[in-house]
Amino acid sequence: GGDPRQAPFAVALQSVRRFCVVRNEAADMYKRIWCCWEAFLACEFGLLNPGELTVVGANRFHDEVHIETADATNDNDKQMILQHLRANPGMIDEVNRKVNQIKQVPETVVLDEAAVQAEFAIRDRDIGVLREDVDQIQRQIPTWEAKAARIREELVQCEEENQSLRTRVEKLDGENAALKKEVQAARAAAAAQAVAAQAAQQTMASFERRLVALEKGRASGEPPQSSDDQRKHLRVPGEQPAVRARSHSQQRRLW
Predict the structure, then answer these.
(1) CA distance 150 to 152
(2) In the predicted model, is pLDDT for residue 150 greater than 90?
(3) In degrees to the nearest 10, what's the CA dihedral of 188, 189, 190, 195?
(4) 3-state secondary structure the chain
(5) For the residues 123-146, what does the mean pLDDT come to?
(6) φ/ψ (deg, to 5) at 113
(7) Which of 59, 72, 101, 204 is the most exposed place for a label (fewest CB within 10 A)?
(8) Going by C-beta distance under 8 Å and a sequence separation of 6 or more, which residues neighbour residue 83?
(9) d(CA 173, CA 167)
(10) How far apart are the C-alpha atoms of 233 and 156, rounded to whole Å?
(11) Average pLDDT for residues 140-169, to the nearest whole number?
(12) What is the distance between the alpha carbons of residues 77 and 85, in angstroms, rounded to a whole number?
């Protein structure tokens, strides 16, 4: 963007508690405009107090800092920073003064070269182990992908089987409902037949009682009071009687 205070490292500096400057013998870091700007912001954010600033490496370069002559990989970055500084009168001198103070800070941490080399060796060994692990994982990836493909195929097959089972269950539910209706109809028919059978038994019992009464009357020689009474005894319940007029002698002859 157009404001160097919004650069990612500038935003990050606002939430840190320590600031470390690592110098080297090959190049003067204060010849780089972004390094100067970062050092100035660290000063503004109060990160140069004892216990907060760490300087590693001896100062092999004693030239004064002039931010206007500092370089940048991208010239547009340099022009953006200088434009921001020039928009605030006196700010270029302020940056030069504070960055020169930081440049003169003596080394606060003296590194043991042998210890550093040993640490690097340990790191290299750990990196080698990690690379071996990564290689092994990469070799296993095709196997895992094949297993995943088989699992996906099995899942598809299971879904198809589940769908088939659901279809069969729906069909069985339909058949079960139909059977329940048939059972209910059969029960109703059986109940009706039971009622009819009971009525038939009652009719047969009535016939038997009437026949017994007729037999007793024949044995005693006493005819029924009338043919209508005789028909009444022999008539099936519900049958309409036949109305015929006969004389008493005719009735006796019929008897």
Answers:
(1) 5
(2) yes
(3) 90
(4) CCCHHHCHHHHHHCCCCCEEEECCCCCCHHHEHHHHHHHHHHHHCCCCCCCCEEEECCCCCCCCCCHHHCECCCHHHHHHHHHHHHCCCCHHHHHHHHHHHHHCCCCCECCCHHHHHHHHHHHHHHHHHHHHHHHHHHHHHHHHHHHHHHHHHHHHHHHHHHHHHHHHHHHHHHHHHHHHHHHHHHHHHHHHHHHHHHHHHHHHHHHHHHHHHHHHHHHHCCCCCCHHHHHHHHCCCCCCCCCCCCCHHHHHHHC
(5) 91
(6) -60, -40
(7) 204
(8) 2
(9) 10
(10) 81
(11) 92
(12) 13
Q: What is the pLDDT of residue 109?
A: 67
What's at 120, amino acid-wise?
F
| More confident of the two residues 106 and 247 | 106
Question: For tokens 């030069």, what's the residue?
Answer: 96
Both tokens assigned to 35: 């390094």
